[in-house]
Amino acid sequence: MDRRALVCHAGALVVDPCSANKCYDRYAKCLPSAGSAALNCSTCLAGFVHASVVGSAELICVRDGTHCQEKNPYLYPTLHRSCHDADGCHAGWTWDAALRNCVDLNECEPGSPYNRCGSVAECINIVGNHVCLCPQLQEHYGGTYTGRYRFDRGSQQCIDDTASPPCVWPQFRFGGQCVEDPCQFNPCAQNERCITAPDGSDYICACKGRRVDGVCKFSPCLTDPCPEPWTTCINNDDWRGRRCVGNLTCPLHESEWCTEPGYVRQRLDCGDGDGVDDWVCTRPSLAQRGVYLSSSDCADDHWPDADASLCPPLFNRSVCPLPSDDWCTGEGLVLEQVDCGDGDAADDWVCMHNATGQRKVLLSSNCTRTVRPAGLVVHGEKVDCGDDDGVYDWICTHPATGQRGVLLSSSDCSDSHWPYANKTLCPSRFSDAMCAQPGNWCEEAQGEVLHSLDCGDGDGVNDWVCLQANTSRRAVLLSSSTCDTALDGWPTADQSMCPPLLNGIMCPLPYNWCEETGGGVLERINCGDGDGVDDWVCTYPNTGQRKVLLSTSNCSIDYWPTADKYLCAPLFNHSMCPMPYDWWCKGDGYVLEKTDCGDGDGVDDWVCTYPATGQRKVLLSSNCTEDHWPQAETALCPLRFNQAVCPMPYNWWCTGDGYVLEKTNCGDGDGVDDWVCTYPATGQRKVLLSSNCTEDHWPQAETALCPLRFNRDGYVLEKTDCGDGDGVDDWVCTYPATGQRKVLLSSNCTEDHWPQAATALCPLRFNRSTCPMPYDWWCSDPGDVLEKLDCGDGDGVDDWVCVNPDSWMRKVLLSSNCSTDHGPAAPRSLCPPRFASAMCYWPSSECSSDGFSRQRVDCGDGDGIDDWICIQHNTSYRGVLLSSSDCQDSHWTNADKSLCTPYFKDLMCPLRYYWCDQQGEQLQRVNCGDGDGVDDWVCTNPANGQRKVLLSSSDCSEDHGPQAETALCPARFNGAVCPQPQGWCDGEGDHIEKLDCGDGDGIADWVCMNNATGQRGVLLSSSNCSLDYWPQAEKALCPNRFTGAPCPQPNWWCTGGGEHIEKLDCGDGDGVDDWVCMNNGTGQRGVLLSSSNCSLDYWPQAEKSLCPNRFNSAPCPQPYYWCTDSDYTLERVNCGDDNVGDDNDWVCIRNATNQRAVLLSSSNCTLDYADNAPISMCPTRFARLMCPLPWETWCVGDGLVREQLDCGDGDAADDWVCTRPSTSERGVLLSSDCESDHWPDAAESLCPAKFANPTGRRLLGHRRELLPLAGR
Question: For residue 257, which of 326, 592, 856, 942 sits 20 to 30 Å off, Cα-Cα?
């Protein structure tokens, strides 16, 4: 160890503190303090002397008088002259040659050798000095960090030693360990604040201002304030600019404003709400006036008729300003100023014309003018209208329109009845006058033409007629009537109302008379009714129905729906018949046809048939009077009815129980089917031959009439003993073609058992015979093939097999068991020789409806045999019967593609039952673009955007509902609104809105809003719809909805103890409410500004400027853990710093040491003046308070005694006294000063109550005399 760094203290060698530290005053001499290892910087270096600074007891070392040049005045009034040091000014100041003054030295400039804050603490320059501020880590870590950092001057580091282990920033304590702060590397951009996660694992960058085009910026009013002192700066909503609004009295841009003779200029507050005076100019002779309001932009003075509301204190109860200098100037006009008695006790302007009695008035209670209607005849007429007062009256008429008015002297002259004065008001003048034309009565823009003529109504006066040229709609106002427009006949005024004009004009077209939407076709044509005038015709081609309005009629009947041909022969002679009613050929099974029946007129005719009965009717264009139902003869329409089956004479021709109706060609030579009706129970029968439909030959139609149906050749009669036990022969009749048989047993002659006499009835004949068919047509359907072969059933007898090669319907009658034929899908095992290579049977009826198609194909199932497939094209339902299967399961409706790959691979997915049938859902068939070129099923619900899709390229098992991604079907979902998740936006107070957020795709988006909390989410169609940004969707996501909306509150925001939420406009310039969180107990506060990006709430110390409308009258917010220790006292007082008078300042006093801090509401609330706040910071509280101890260990140590007493300095407050009896050293902190403790030789006069002790004085003087000897 370097022994030069050791000094003797209390008989022992200790490290010299001056070897490790230095005095802050660079010209002070560092000496060990007597009796301690602390620094003693109270002595100056050689050549330097102490100098003082006004307002502070601190002494600084400057060069002595031999090198002294006085610099006076300093720029800052808190300092006064002192000697300069080597660079011209004392410590903390520097010489400015241009200003020729000492100015503050900024120790915080980069590279300054005087900065003692190190690399961690923030250097804050103050006048003549600087302070070092550690990072505000409580806010930095999201308000969760409980420690507190202090600045250590020795190590120039920020240390948190409030708990173990102590952590040195950039480390902080979490979970009992010191962890690294990721914000130490300043990862955030300019104007952004780095906020670390509580465990140091991550960070976020919060914008201190607002993001504009993705960049964090401060408000334009902060970076570019208004240059004019009388204006207030207001940010634009988008923060790309600002505007300046005046809040001081407007400057007069023209010095001569309101200085002309007769003008009066005044300065007063017009009550416009800003509390600032305004400029007012008046011209009393004309009551004209103007005003420059300080609350406006000072650009418009509203001369000469400024509204009374602009300056009520001056303009209310004053006469109206004249609108112009010549308002009442001219021959015969007299201007008067008089109170008209309008109730406001203010004079009014009256202008009179003595010759005409005309007059006008401007009432101070309503400074508007009554303007005479345009077009009035200026000179008017003066007549006695016969109102019984014998005084002339004024009438005014407009010859061009017939409009008129009258002012009767017998009335109060207030109502001129313009422009429709009734005839009775002035019969002497109006009795022979035409009606007044109503306003907008005949509009040229609608194609209407106004006519003025005498309609011949007997009064010899012209009348008004309005005629619409393209429709002939019309109205008539007759002068002989009451002139009431409700009686003008519009739109179908009768011809008799004005024969001179309306005779020879088309009928007026009634509204909605021939609607195109219903299929009507309107035509204008001369129907040849003899007047040479066009007529209106309306036809409906789908029914032939028609109507006509003839100009020769009274236009009141149109003959709907079957206007006769003669009514409009030029058009109807070559037209089809009109159907007599809409349902003439409607109903299940009816078929309507439009064809030329060959009736010789070359025009199509209507034919209606009912195929189930052959019944028919016809409307021939050559004769539209009868339709000949139900048996229209063939001759009526040979081109259609030739080759047609006969019509049944009535519906029930063959409909009773047991009757059998057949449609078959009887072989009558015309090649057309005939009707056959049989009654098997009796053998009775009838026939309607298409070659002759007049007779049916019931009940014994001869075989010759229908030989193909009635002939029964091929029967074989035998006589044999059937073995019935009586030894007598029996009759047996067989029909080999069908195996049918019957027998008359001699033992029982009552029954023949046709057509399937049992084998047991005649075993000697029927054993080893083929089965009898149960009926003649057992195998007679079109395409059926009957075969007789041994199916291998073990009896050696042939069997009947019926097969349809087209459908592979099949059945078999086995001779070993004739009771059933196993149709229509007899199993292969019943007849292997015939059925082994047979297809499955699938009835055509199961796949024959419209939209179905059945195909016979080989699905590739390995047996080389065709299979059946059935497809419903509109749903893509499909089934398959594979010949390699048991033919039992068709897999309908969703047969897998693998069952018949060659044919199913290019099919859409089968549409599931009830898949898209919920309320509001819409089904579409579209190629989604999934690469297979096959359409897919898409189901959407426009009400909530939900959607699902069945892709043909998939296995069709998953529909991805209700939020199918856009990528699944871009051809349909691109450009579509997002689907809402299930249960989305169903919280209390939530509501859904659908609008285009302005995200650039022109598509509507979903917005979820909660008005109570401002929370919001959005599903943007331009995104992948998977994220809704709830509950704090940023404004930029949906500017069309969120601009002008309050910020969304974060979850659990402002829910701490004592906290409450307020909603108000903070005055941030956007006119939108903001959220404020207040804690009345601590003054702590946060704000979510709608003009910002809503991501930062500035908790807990939001600045006043963020919400002046709320924070201007609120106390400062306390920093975290400020004045919370038990030995501190927190008070809320009025320090008198803002002339407001409210207790809005915080004072923190340490009870034991009187150390104190203050947060002033008039400041920015960020500086509390450490532990030694000057009296001037809060004189109302500190003026009679003891001084704060300069530091906690002041007057604490070996031999030091600290006392609290009133030294008698005149302020009636206690003072601090420190003495060391062993050396008589003493100091005092006077509550009237507090700047210096005068240690170690405080003058007796500073505290006579304590220091007036002669012994003390002699001892002190004695020690001073001995000091030089000790030095030797």
Answer: 326
Task: Tell whether 34 and 111 lie within a shared domain.
Answer: no
Look at residues 176, 207, 239 and tell me which one is the last residue of a structural domain. Answer: 176
Asked whether residue 1193 is assigned to any structural domain, the reply reads yes
What gap in Å lies between CA 670 and CA 642, rounded to an integer?
Answer: 10
Cα separation, 118 vs 304, in Å, equals 68
Question: N- to C-terminal Cα distance for the chain?
Answer: 29
User: Which residue type, as a one-letter code, is found at position 477?
Assistant: L
Q: What pLDDT digit, counting tens, does each position of 439-468 carry?
A: 788 888 888 888 888 898 888 888 889 998
486's CB contacts (< 8 A; 6+ apart) are: none
Nearest to 896 by CA among 875, 919, 879, 913: 879
Instruction: Read off the pLDDT of residues 1061-1077 as tens digits, 9 standing for 90 and up.
Output: 989 989 888 888 889 99
Per the omega criterion (within 30 degrees of 0), is the bond before 220 cis? Answer: no
User: Tokens 């789908």 map to which residue?
Assistant: 542
Q: Is residue 479 part of a domain?
A: no
Q: Which residues pair with 1172 in a beta bridge?
A: 1156
Residues 92 and 156 in one domain: yes
Output 116-122 pairs: Cβ under 8 A, ≥24 positions apart.
116/24, 116/153, 116/156, 117/151, 117/156, 118/155, 118/156, 118/157, 119/156, 120/156, 120/157, 120/158, 120/169, 120/170, 121/151, 121/156, 121/157, 121/158
Using H for helix, E for strand and C for coil, what is the string for 804-864?
ECCCCEEEEEECCECCCCCCCECCHHHCHHHHCCCCCCCCHHHHCCCCEEEEEECCCCCCC
Residues 667 and 614 both lie in one domain: no
Beta strands (DSSP E) in 443-520 are: 448-453, 463-468, 474-477
Domain boundary among 176, 195, 223: 176
Counted domains in the chain: 10
Q: Which domain holds residue 928?
A: 922-951
The Cα 222–Cα 225 span in angstroms is 6
Residues near 1140 by Cβ (< 8 Å), separated by ≥ 6? Answer: 1113, 1134, 1161
At 489, list the tokens.
Answer: 């006949």
Residues 602, 671, single domain; the answer is no
How far apart are the C-alpha atoms of 930 and 801, rounded to whole Å? Answer: 50
**Contact yes or no for 462/456 (Cβ under 8 A):** no
CA 1016 to chain centre: 12
- 561: cis peptide before it, omega within 30°? yes
What sign does the dihedral 424-428-429-432 (CA atoms) show? Answer: positive
Q: Which amino acid is at 930?
A: D
Backbone angles phi, psi at 1074, to 5 degrees: -125, 165
Computed over every residue of the chain, the mean pLDDT equals 80
pLDDT digits (tens, 9 = 90+) for 625-650: 888 888 888 888 988 888 888 898 88
CB atoms within 10 A of CB 1069: 22
Tell whether omega for the bond before 73 is within 30 degrees of 0, i.e. cis: yes
Q: Confirm if 863 and 884 have CB atoms less than 8 A apart.
A: yes
Positive/negative CA dihedral, 309, 312, 314, 318: positive
Evaluate whether 649 touches 635 at the Cβ level (below 8 Å).
no
**Whether the predicted pLDDT of 1172 surpasses 50:** yes
What is the 3-state secondary structure of 401-450?
CCEEEEECCCCCCCCCCCCECCHHHCHHHHCCCCCCCCCCCCCHHHCEEE
Q: Diameter of the chain by CA atoms?
A: 183
Same structural domain, 680 and 725: no
Shared domain for 57 and 96, answered yes or no, is: no
CA distance 818 to 812: 9
Give which of 1002, 999, 1060, 1064 is closest to 1029, Cα–Cα.
Answer: 999
| Residues 990 and 1019 placed together within one structural domain of the fold | yes
H helices of 679-729, in order, are 707-710
1127 belongs to a structural domain: no
Q: For residue 317, give both structure tokens.
A: 């109860």
